[in-house]
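To the structural biology subgroup,

Please find below the input and predicted structure for Transposase, which we are adding to the shared reference set this quarter. The sequence is reproduced verbatim from the submission form. If anyone notices a discrepancy with their own records, reply to this email rather than editing the shared folder directly, so we keep one authoritative version.
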Amino acid sequence: MTQVNDLSRSLVSFEQNSSVTVVVEMSESGWLVAGQVPGLERQPLKLEPDPAALLSLMERWREEAVKAGRTIERIALAFEARRDGFWLARWLRARDIEVHVIHSTSVAVSREHPCEDRPVGHGDAHARVPGLAARRARALRDGCDPRARGRR
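Predicted structure (tokenized):
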């Protein structure tokens, strides 16, 4: 029987109470790391671009969750593929971290200038996509709110 390779479906259920979920916004100057840790509240942290520091941070979060009485069975990390993307994924997978690399062209968002006419509410997608929230913030700073069409 032929198996369909449907990458939009997860083969493993997501158990939020036993998973540490981490997202990384990568740049040359630093990595912004945010995590969802069961039983704990986390604020995003700025790290130097250092894979060992990222790994130790995730392990520390796992230990803190265990101390808070949670059983952690999975650490899942996602980031947008950039300069450091694929070698970092291989390095982390070798250390038993589940890694999901998101290719920037696979994210279904408009790449047009944020001040061009678009339907109201279209800019909401920008806030959910890694890397695009910064573009939206710059557009707002420059006085171009894509969600404000017709409200000026």
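Summary notes: The first strand starts at residue 19 and ends at 26. The two ends are 59 Å apart (CA to CA).

Regards,
Lab coordination
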